[in-house]
Fold each of these.
Amino acid sequence: MKLRVDLLPHGQYPDVVVVVDVLRATTSAVAYLERGAEALLLTRTPEVALALRGGGGEYVLGGERGGLPIPGFDFGNSPVEAGTQNFTGKTVVMNTTNGTGAAHVAAQSGKHVLLAALTNAHAAARRARALATEGIAIVCAGTDARVGLDDVYTAGVLAEYLLAMGEFELDDGARIALTVRRGGGNPLEALGGSAHGLHLADLGLGADVQFAAGLSISTVVPTLAGGGDIPAETLKFVAG
Amino acid sequence: MKLRVDLLPHGQYPDVVVVVDVLRATTSAVAYLERGAEALLLTRTPEVALALRGGGGEYVLGGERGGLPIPGFDFGNSPVEAGTQNFTGKTVVMNTTNGTGAAHVAAQSGKHVLLAALTNAHAAARRARALATEGIAIVCAGTDARVGLDDVYTAGVLAEYLLAMGEFELDDGARIALTVRRGGGNPLEALGGSAHGLHLADLGLGADVQFAAGLSISTVVPTLAGGGDIPAETLKFVAG
C-alpha cells in the first residue's frame, strides 16, 4: 500500500484522502462533531455559507479569514469556543482560509475523504487504514499556498500511526513529514513554533493552539458523506 | 535577516534567491562552469534552446525531460558527462524539467539569483550571505510540482551553512528543511533515497546521484547576469 503526503494540496488522489488543517479548521471540525453537531457543511466561499442561512435552514456558521471571525458568522473557527457550546441537532456551516479549500480539492478525486487533526489522529489513521485498498494520501492544507510546519508535523504523526498498522511504500512527502514529526519536538512545541501558531498567539488565540496540540483525545473522524440533500458548492461531513 | 525556504517555487522573492534542483540541473550547471563554460543560458522551453542553435551561435545544448536526453540536444543534463568534457569558451544552453522553470520564477522578482547544489553549497551560502540586505530565499525546484526530498535536504544544508554565518529569522520551510537535513542521513543516503534519486538509478544514472552528493567540492556559484545581449526567454548565468 502506498502512503503519500502532499505538503500542499496537489490533486489526483487515491481512494482515501485525509485532509489536515490542524490550526484550526480540522481541529474545529472534530470539536463541532464532538459537541453534538449532526453534520458539517464545508463551503467553497463565505458567501455560500451566508446564503445557506438566508435559505432558512437550521444552520450555525463558523469560519475565519486570516484567523479572524467572518462578519455575519456565529463562530470564529475556534475549537476552544466550540467546546463551550452544545451543537446537538445542528448543522455547522464552515468556511476557512485554507482548510475548506483543501477539502474541496480532496473531494474532486478522492473516494473517501476524512478530516484529521492531532486531536483525532489515531482514530483518523485507523479509519484511513480500514478504508484503503489502493493507497492513502494525507493532504496538508498549508497557509495561503505556503507549506505549514503545523500541518506537516501532524501529517507525520498520522504517518507514524499508519506505519504501526502495516507496511507502506512512502513518497518523499511522507518521508519529510516523518522526519519533521521525529525531529520537531512535542506537539505543542511544533504547533506553537509554527508561523501559523505564532500568528494565532499574536491574535490572542494561543488557547486554540494549546487545544489543537492535544494528541488523540477524540475518536470522531469527520467523514465525507454523499447523498442528494447537499447544497451546491458544499461538502457534507458527518461523524464517523 | 530573514531566511525562507520554498519547498516549491512560490514567487515574490527578496533580494537574494538561491535556486536548488540538485538532481540534476543545478549540479550540472556548476559542472559546466567548472569545465570552462563561459556562460549558461537557461531557456523556458526546449524549443527556445533549439532555435538558439539554429541562429548559428557557438552553443552547446544540455537538457532532459523525465531524466532522458532531449532529441537534438548534445548533452543529457548529466554532471558526470559534463565532467568529461571541455567547455572552454562555449555557452551551454540548458533546458530541464523542473530546474530551469524554477530559475525563471526566481528571476521574476529576485534581484540576485544564484544556482546551488550540494557540490557548491558552502560557496553558494557564503555568496548569498554577502549579497543579501533584506533576506534570502532558497527555492526548491521539486519534481513535476511535487516536493522533492533531494531538494529539501539540500536547502537544509544551505540553511545550516547560513546559520553558521549569522543570525536569521526562519520561516516554516526553513525549519522543515533544517529538520530534514539533520534527520535525513548523509547526502548520498538522502539523495539516493529520494523518489528522484531512485528514478535516476532506474535509468542507469546512479553515478550522477553519487556525483551530486559530493558536498562543497566546488566554489563556482552560477550567478544571474544582466546585460543587453541575452536572447529572449532565456536567463544568462556566469561563474561567480
Amino acid sequence: MENLLSPLDAAFHALADPTRRAVVSRLMRGPAPVKELAEPFDMGLPSFLKHLRVLEKDGLISSEKIGRVRTCRVNAEKLAGAETWLSEQRALWQARTDRLADYVETRMPMEPEDVG
Amino acid sequence: MENLLSPLDAAFHALADPTRRAVVSRLMRGPAPVKELAEPFDMGLPSFLKHLRVLEKDGLISSEKIGRVRTCRVNAEKLAGAETWLSEQRALWQARTDRLADYVETRMPMEPEDVG
C-alpha cells in the first residue's frame, strides 16, 4: 500500500493535517488500537479511518490486525528524514546570516557611510 | 493572501512537493528574482508560478515587485515551527525508548525467563 510519492513528499503530506499529527504524536508514546486512537477526535469513524489510511499510505504508520483488534504503530524513521531536511535548511539560513554579519562587521569600521 | 490553514498545516503542505522544497532551499541562501528561481526547473513558467503562489499563500515566502522584477525571499521562521514539532516527536519517541530500556534492564537480572 506504499504510494508513489518520494519519502519526503509523503512525510510532509501526511503531516499537513492536525488529526494526523495528533495520531503520530500519540503513537510516538507507543502502539495503540484504532479504537483508542479514534476516541479523542470529534469525528465519525469513517472520517478518522481515512486519516489512518493516509498515514499508512504515506508510510508514517503501520497496522496489524490480531483477532478483531487492529493495532497501529508509528514508523519513527520516516519523520527523521523530514526533520533532517528542515535542519539542513536552517544550516543554510544560519550560514547566510553569518556571512551577512561578517560582511557588515568587516566593512563597518572602514566605510560607515555604506551601512544604512 | 494568507490562507486559513494553521501555520503547521500550511508549512507541511507547502513542503510536500520537490519543486517547492528546492525553491525554499535556494531562498535560504538569499532572496532571488522569480526568473532566476524558475531557471533550474524543467517546467513551464505558469506551472512554476503556481508553486510560488502555494508557497506564498502558505506563508513560506514573500515577494515584492520593483519595476519589472519580482523578488522572492523565504520566511525562515515558518520552517522553524515545523522543525520544532518534529523534534518534539523525536523527544517523545526517545523517552519511550528509554523507558523500554530501563524496563528491560531492571527486569533482566531478576527474571531472565521473562525476556525473550
